[in-house]
Amino acid sequence: MDHDLDTLETHAVGSPLPFIAMAGLLFGAIAAATLCPQALRPHLGPADMERFGAYLVFGLCTSWAIPKRPLAVVAIIAIAAFGLEAALNLVPGRDAHLVDASVKALGGLCGATLGFWSSHLVQRVGRGPLLP
Prior knowledge:
single chain
């Protein structure tokens, strides 16, 4: 099937447009929370759980937005996690840590895996019984 940039195909979870919008909004929120001064950063729980959870949801939405491009999803997640963490070096009073970027990337990959798996399951259920 040809992929034309002017058309977006419907997939297992419906139109990709809401998921593209959600992934973009989530990335913006993650970037704002990551790059803002420490005192302004929201605190919802332990820092590693916040990082993992935020990127898990981002990975899930990204995988639903572009389900037929798993390598692109992995690249987006990795660039977002490591790129935003590296950008912390430009913010006064903030410092980047490889371990933090790794937690973010792992959360994103877990979310993407869940998204790809759920898309596959929805497609499979639509075709009939799950067991042969």
